[in-house]
Structure prediction request, 1160 residues.
Amino acid sequence: MSIITKLALAAGLATALSSGALAQDISGKVIGFSQIGSESGWRAAETSVTRQQAEERGVDLKFADAQQKQENQIKAIRGFIAQGVDAILVAPVVATGWDDVLTEAKEAEIPVILLDRGIDAPEDLYLTSVASDQVLEGRVAGEWLVSEVAGEDCNVVELQGTVGSSPAINRKQGFEEGIASAANVTITQSQTGDFTRSKGKEVMEAFLKSSNGGADICAVYAHNDDMAVGAIQAIKDAGLKPGEDILVVSIDAVPDIFTAIAAGEANATVELTPNMAGPAFDALAAYWADGTMPEKFIITESKLYTAENDPAGEYERRKDLGY
Amino acid sequence: MSDTGYALEARGIVKIFGNHVALDAVDFGLRPGEVHALLGENGAGKSTLIKILTGAYQPDGGMVLADGEPVHLDNPQQAQTHGIGTVYQEVNLLPNRSIAENLYLGHQPTRFGLVDRRRMETGARGILKRYGLEIDPSSELGAHSVAVQQIVAIARAVELSGKVLILDEPTASLDRNEVERLFEIIRDLKARGLAVVFITHFLDQVFAVADRVTILRNGKLVDTRALDDMTRTDVVRLMLGKDVAFSGATGVEDARPMGEVLLDFANYGRKRSVHPFNLTIHKGEVIGVAGLLGSGRTEMARIMFGADSADEGILEIAGKKTSIARPTDAIANGFGFCPEDRKAEGIFGDLSVRENIIIALQGKLGWFSALNRDEQMEIAGRFGESMDIRAASLDMPIKLLSGGNQQKVILSRWLATDPAFLILDEPTRGIDVGAHAEIVRTINRLRDEGLALVVISSELDEVVAYSSRIVVMRDREMVAELSGENINPGVIVQAIANHREGPSA
Amino acid sequence: MMRRILTPLANPQLIALVGVLLVNWLLFPNFFRITWQDGRLFGSLIDVLNRGAPVAILAIGMVGVIATKGVDLSVGAVMAMAGAVAATMVVAGYPAPVAVAAALAVGLACGLWNGFLVAVLDIQPIVATLVLMVAGRGIAQLITEGFIVTFTDPVLIYIGTGSFLGVPMAAVIAIALMLLVTLLVRKTAIGLFIEAVGVNRAAASLAGIRSRMLLILVYGLSGLCAAVAGIIIAGDIRGADANNAGLWLELDAILAVVIGGTSLLGGRFSVPLAVVGALIIQAMNTGILVSGFPPEFNLIVKAALIFFVLVIQSPLASRIVPVRATAREAHK
Prediction:
């Protein structure tokens, strides 16, 4: 078991422990949150979940939307420092250029927690960093497929994210690790669908043509749910049954994929949780309670959802989060 | 001072572009303490000569001497080191920097390696004072009037160069008072011993400020003379190349009865473009328009056609009051217009000869009654033949045709619309002899067929030959209307020069 | 007569299209195989038609704009807006024809707005249409509130994924639009006037062409075409994706027009050849997908192929052919 998996389990455990006793400890605290923007559904969901989490804990959340600009984020953080907030959450838009403003926060003795993405800055400038493990997400998907096909030969076609983007690279690597042990599962074709539905559909169409009308494809692995939704339509257009003739597994757990899972057209998705704030608040609660220093990198859980996990209910729970 | 006494001299300058001789053995001498006007129609070679004197062009023959010593000027900066500064019509300074920065640009006073702003502004204030400007040198140049910018440009050129100042149409965008102020500065510089070259189209200004004049025509030197013993008429005659004394040619022997009135322009004009004019045009009549470049002749043509709209006056067409606000109005009333700049405003270079011929007719027919290909071929073929258009095919792009054939195509374009009134602006400029004759023949034929025409031309012989009346433009004003025996080059030249000398309008 | 029929077939664009298809065939032997499946044609060639249709439709609108020496950068954003309008309206319960009409009206209005900026306010086309390129996507995101608005309306889905006589609906619409617009510009004087304005607007104005009306018309048509393309791609994925719908497709449309032989400096244009340009681009895309190249090479392969196509139709290459022709004529 890798160190990352251990960390993830530790974080999951911490979350489980914290959600009762410690939740009260940070009520009344003022916490600033500098969000990147709302460029994707997931980002919007992260914002709404963060607000939810703050409300549950009685935290006064100061929200600042940076509209994809680092200078706005730096301005917002300086504003938080000037207001004398108790802690600052930042979802950093870029990796570099944070040293000065984080030093200012440190000098003001305001703990900073990074959400979702890491930065290139000395580790003592922030309390901790909460993020998902994209490699792990890919591996969970791969391991699910290996157990699902149970030893039978399976040709997988892969719909990659945008070429060169870190989720595309990491989710590909993770999936390959996940299927490495099973010689019967192999990736036969791999192309980029740019994380979009229409490209996912177009690429899947081409894969079906070049795989004997789809007869040679056992499963499709998509780096995000949107491409999977597009691929499902392409499979149906080719006269095949997605979920049966061709297994569909993807990552993100957005609401629409649960509709597909409920309809039996998709088989599994791995959650990229929008709840980055929950673990961050928990870490703050422990820190303020008795000075417990959290791990430097808190990894969120990469939970697998299939038809057995009440997909219709999951859809209902997620549909209003802003995805 | 050298033996020739010239501050700047050009000897036997030849400049050839391709197979066009722009300057043919031109001599030009400039004395210190004189204002020397350089005159000539468009294409006479003025700007080429200036560019050679300022190092922008290299001559293909002859030499340039500064203070009697031959110099080789590779670029304007080098000309500057020989004391030669130039101010162009468009001020080419930096409008978003301060006046002081513009004056000192490139040679700012420095202290410890940094620009010494205070010293620069004090110096600038002193310079501006000498030119009678009491303005803040730290203010932005662009915030001031064109006249002030012009003076700043002159000040900069004089401060940098100090011996010769070349002014290329400096008064084009100035009003009367500003021109007078500029002249005071020029006179002052002259008193300080500077040699000033002054290029303009306005004869009044030449006589107001210049001592001597050099006249170029078609790349050749016509003469250099002192202005004291010349009249305006002399100058215009030299510019247009007409020897008035020997010219007895008169216009069309007008035995034919005048046709009925087609157009009546009453008090028609446009502010800052053409002073209001009165002109009645009959069917079967050619009105020639004479005047120097910049006299307002093209502007008059444009407002007649609605390319620029008139802002005062009344137009009656066949007795009915009509408003022409844009070319489509004019075309709907049977007007046609061949513009002076054929390439920029006349031809559609990439389109075929056929399309160039039918386009105005098609414009008149509108979007939805398209001429089909056969109809287009028939029309284009008809005019191709009657106008003797020399093209390998009517489907070839018009840009491949010679200038003369392009002009015939544009003329055909309007004839295809079956016009009642044609305005031709310099229809014979820059075209070969054969096409020239064809166009003159066409003008005569159209007049005989009953069309009304207005023809603008610098070729006085030509205008005299086909016009039944001639109007003369000067300083954006119609200054004379000549008819009968007054249609001869001598009278026209006098009218262009100064209408007080000529017969009354 | 024979020559008049054959000459248009022997142009560089069609040669390039055939060339790209042949390369695809070499990489993927089943490329030309077309089967009948569930009442529709099925095969890679059909995919090229179907997937190429949105860009082809954009190019049909774009070619007129470019012929007037303009450019319309807003078409991708207008696609997103039209899709967003159609999707949110059917989800809100409006009948599909109303939603489609509203989406088309939005596209037309966007185009007319661009035309107004260019023709009346005399703003440079690249700047004028940049306004909507940026703002349009934002408006689309406002309409969808950041969600992918999914719908189940059968009419809208039919527009995106249905088929007519076995041919994908998107391709049918593109072909119909191509014929319609070609007739519109060539059977009227509009095509000639567009070329005249593009070649020399000053001369066009003096020749009595109402260039303002004409510019507003071509930008309006471009907006309308963008709306059609936007409805199609929304119908295709059964949802309006404001973030990604039509993203960067304005560049593909411009490229299609340029490959179709229309100069960015305005003038001569051909609607059918712009469509061929779009098909060339799509044939490359589909070829890359079926060939099994690693996706890291997609852009490089595409760039190399486009370079090749542009070289084929460069002035230098076209000079070589006429030189031979004249030489032959001289022998006669």
Remarks:
- Residues 1-6, 322-332 of chain C have pLDDT under 50 and may be disordered.
- The interface with chain A takes residues 28, 30, 35, 37-38, 42-44, 47, 51, 146-148, 150, 161, 233, 236-239, 241, 243-245, 247, 285-286, 289-290, 292, 294-296, 298-299 of chain C (CB under 8 Å).
